[in-house]
Fold this sequence. Notes:
It contains three helices and no strands. The protein is mainly α and 91 residues long.
Amino acid sequence: MPIREQEIDALARHFIEGLLxxxxxxxxxxxxxxxxxxxxxxxxxxxxxxxxxxxxxxxxEAEARKYSGVDVNRLRTMIKQRLAEKKGFTL
Length: 91
């Protein structure tokens, strides 16, 4: 299930406010600008993961049609890991 925009906004706000509250970062820009950057990065990350998931699903199903008895879930996981590695994406 894809993550909703409101959830990303809330997560980004929680992240920024938590870092500020613990004095782990010093705001050199308005908080709303920092939130916009974090939301953009998180959105891109979730989109990349969704693309990897879709590609892994397609590839796993294609291979499962060729070879009966293959554990599709395990195959999908392995394909997803390899695709993520190739793209330099951490799962």
